[in-house]
Amino acid sequence: MAEEEPVTTAQPAAAVGDYTRYVQFMYLAGIALATWLTAKIMSTTWMAFGEPMTSVVYPVSLAAALGLGVFLWRHKRVKERAFEVIAELSKVTWPTRKELYAAVVAVIVVSIVVSIILFFFDAFWSWATTKIYLL
What's the mean pLDDT in 90-112? Predict the structure, then answer.
């Protein structure tokens, strides 16, 4: 008897490759955010001792953020999670233009109604406290 091949449930490599550019963009956005945040922290800390040197702050911030990005890109578990997040986001069904318009109109109408109700509560409370203070 011939030996049967085991059944694998792993996704083909092409399915994972479809999300690679999104994961790379996510990493680049994270590096940009980390650069900005590190520069702000360094500038704020440096200000306690004097005027920060931007010629030092920004290159060091960029180097630190790039180092973190490369470390996280090579970290197997983090990379797998990033691909899982992108795969789940690809399953999201986004609203149509008509649904979005209806939702925006509903939010605006409810905001106006609640504002009117709060106006009347505020007016009543103002009137009531004025009467109480005049006693």
Answer: 95
